[in-house]
Amino acid sequence: MNKLILRGRVLTFVEEPTSIDDQSAYNYFEDGAVLVEDGKIVDVGEYAAIAPVAADAKIVDHRPNLIMPGFIDTHLHFPQTQAIASYGAQLLEWLNTYIFVEEQKFSSTAHADFIAGRFMDELLRNGTTSAVAYCSVHRESVDAYFTAAEQRGMLMIGGKVMMDRNAPDALRDTPQSGYDDTKALIAKWHGRGRAHYAISPRFAITSTPRQMEMSQALVREHPECYVQTHLSENRDEIAFATSLYPSAKDYTDIYAGYCLLGEKMLLGHCIFLSDREISVLAETKSVAVFCPTSNLFLGSGLFDRDRFRSLGARISVATDVGGGTSFSMLETMSEAYKVLHVQGQRLSPFASYYMMTLGNARALGLEDRIGSLRTGGDADIVVLDSKAKPAMELRMRTATTLAEELFILQTMGDDRSVAEVYVAGKPMKSRIDTATPQVKA
Ligand code: GUN
Ligand code: FE
């Protein structure tokens, strides 16, 4: 028997909420059910309507917990899993002091395999079922990454970082080897199971013009792949990047000059862009990735969401581990709320849950597969407990609306609020806890 009914309070978005009162943006079933068969969602609705037509299904009763689509993280670094909370430096110093040291460990396949497994489990523990990550410069790190994802059945996007200057010798590729390795990895992984490849020139500072040309060739030859890089995160970074490409109008124009922008492009950070640059992102349908915990932790700056909105540019949201400080999308949205609040911008709880589910799926063009609970979609599902911590339970006693509950869950919750997580219909929580106990034996 492979039919499964998940019973609980089901919440899923169909549109971006326009206000906190916009009930047309989501479907909510107080006594709801999701019917799953062979890793796919067959039906979503009232439990009373679904149970009789699937009498042969196994029922898992998650009441009173919330059942939602698995979270999606659109930018993080798998080799930085053990570099979270590296003290006291802004971007360029932080990269040189901590990150470029850490990433050298991934020349060891044993290390890459170990961290890849723990990385996927950490995502799942936090309710994130799909993510877009940078691997290290080493080909083998990409094998480790996609193998760990495949073992868990996860839809993951990623790629080998390319960098051929301004990094230690041990972390540099060449324009040719970066191209060749990326080609080989795309052939091996893109479209295998649920894997998607992301062509990943790290940023303008670490790629020579020749490597940018090779990236352009890769993007032209592989329009099916994603592209990811970093843009306008830190003032010293902007000055250095633009000094390396003196003929570019601005930082964005460096990437535009190599035809890297487009609807598959994910640009991390985008904090200090001019209106001209944001308009270029809008015209090319590129995605600006908001990384609140990272932008605060590295002292980078505040993402101005409303300016992207008014200029019609696409945005997504992400943890950016290990510049980001948490794998939890709940904690990430809690910081997103504060980053916007301090600028006088509002982020409603509904908009927040939209962003980490359907919003991010749309940014990836994967809304037919993930990011919502809909017939025919992949059964990647998170079950959330709004009373997971004593302080949350106490606070929840005074909550009267779904909006309040969602906001409490986001503001006070973390991995402890994830009661269960399903990947392609398979419950993963017990497996994570067995495979990777929280405390070393
Ligand atoms: N810019 C270039 N590389 C990185 C990185 O690894 N993390 C962050 N936050 N910014 C970057
Ligand atoms: Fe990053």
Q: How would you summarize this macromolecular structure in one to three sentences?
A:
It catalyses: guanine + H2O + H(+) = xanthine + NH4(+). The protein has 441 residues and is an alpha/beta fold.
Q: Your description of this structure?
A:
Catalyzes the hydrolytic deamination of guanine, producing xanthine and ammonia. A hairpin with a 2-residue loop joins strand 2 and strand 3. This protein is an alpha/beta fold and 441 residues long. It folds into two domains: 126 residues, Urease, subunit C, domain 1 (Roll); 257 residues, TIM Barrel, CATH 3.20.20. The site of fe (iii) ion has 6 residues, from strand 5. The site of fe (iii) ion (FE) has 6 residues, from strand 5.
Class derived from helix and strand content: alpha/beta
Question: How far is the first residue's CA from the last residue's CA?
Answer: 36 Å
Instruction: State the shape.
Output: globular
Strand residue content: 15-25%
Radius of gyration: 21 Å
Count the helices. How many? 16
Helices and strands, with pairings:
Elements: E1 3-13, E2 26-37, E3 40-46, H1 47-50, E4 58-69, E5 71-77, H2 91-102, H3 109-125, E6 128-134, H4 139-152, E7 155-159, E8 161-162, H5 175-189, E9 196-201, H6 209-221, E10 226-231, H7 235-244, H8 251-257, E11 265-269, H9 275-284, E12 287-290, H10 292-297, H11 305-310, E13 314-317, H12 329-341, H13 349-363, E14 381-384, H14 390-396, H15 402-412, E15 418-423, E16 426-427, H16 429-435
Parallel strand pairs: 1-4, 5-6, 6-7, 7-9, 8-9, 9-10, 10-11, 11-12, 12-13
Antiparallel strand pairs: 1-2, 2-3, 4-14, 14-15, 15-16
Bound molecules: guanine and fe (iii) ion (FE).
